[in-house]
Write a structure and sequence with these properties.
This protein has helices at residues 22-30, 66-76, 97-104, 121-126, 143-154, 195-198, 202-220, 222-227, and strands at residues 3-9, 33-39, 52-53, 63-64, 85-94, 108-113, 130-133, 187-188, 191-192. It is of the alpha/beta class. The chain is elongated, with a radius of gyration of 22 Å. The chain binds S-adenosyl-L-homocysteine (SAH). S-adenosyl-L-homocysteine is lined by residues 88-91, 113-115, 117-118, 133-135, 137-139, 141-142, 145.
Length: 228
């Protein structure tokens, strides 16, 4: 089953971008997922193809119009399209690996990329858009956020990751950050690989990695430990 991604944007040239290369790019070519990109401006009605207007109540910047965006959404995803409708937004729920897994298990996603100050609240309400944030900082547009979300989803689609096992131990999967990695050479600028990793003792290696993961998580992301 192909995961169908539909992106709505004022900058279609930004797609597939980084997702046209490497794992995601190969999976796109293989048909593991599909991507259609819609120019929101094509749904403008005036001569200047206007998609934004000044904020009601005053203030700086411009706001994307509800009517134009709704028309674009309805064209891409009619009422009987069951895919989740996402709006990339710094006000959204922060994206988690758990939500990424859910999305990857579904039929696809309709992803709206905001620009300017954001989009008119009424289209968010009327089209039931799920606001998703990629972090507590402000991007100039939703496109890089959409690329981040799709990258995280696509690598989980069946057959995309070469070594299926490599997903299971990663950061967040067990509620912990991942342990540190090492590879050859045995010594780098006077720093050796920790002995336990070259001892061949699988039990001790697993225990060491576990302890490292817990220490790192306690130091850097105590919030993850609270959630477990
Ligand atoms: N005025 C808004 C920010 C608008 S930034 C505010 O203060 O909340 C313009 C667009 O970039 C947004 O509509 C959104 O689509 C996207 N964007 C910016 N930061 C983002 C983030 N952290 N996560 C997801 N999308 C983001």
């Amino acid at each position: 089953m192909t995961f169908r991604a539909s992106v709505l944007t004022l900058y279609p040239e930004m797609f597939p971008g980084a997702l046209g290369l490497s794992l995601a790019g190969r999976a796109l070519e293989a048909g593991t997922w599909s991507l259609d990109v819609t120019q929101i401006r094509d749904f403008a009605t005036d001569r200047h193809r206007t998609v934004d207007d000044t904020p009601a109540g005053g203030g700086a910047g411009m706001v994307m119009r509800a009517d134009i965006l709704a028309k674009a959404i309805d064209h891409v995803a009619p009422a009987n399209d069951t895919r989740p409708r996402l709006l990339m937004s710094p006000r959204g729920r922060p994206l988690t690996q758990a939500r990424v897994r859910e999305l990857a298990a579904g039929a696809g996603a309709v992803i709206v990329c905001g620009r300017f100050e954001g989009v008119d609240q009424r289209v968010i309400d009327a089209r039931n858009l799920e606001e998703i944030s990629v972090g507590d900082y402000i991007l100039s547009g939703g496109e890089p956020a959409a690329l981040v979300l799709l990258d995280a989803v696509v690598r989980l689609l069946p057959g995309v990751m070469g070594n299926e096992l490599s997903g299971a131990h990663e950061s967040f999967e067990g509620g912990l950050l991942e342990y540190p990695h090492y590879t050859r050479p045995q010594e780098f600028e006077g720093r050796p690989i920790p002995d336990v990793l070259t001892s061949g003792n699988h039990g001790k290696t697993a225990a060491w990695r576990r302890e490292q993961a817990e220490t790192l998580t306690r130091e850097r992301r105590p919030d993850l430990l609270d959630k477990r």
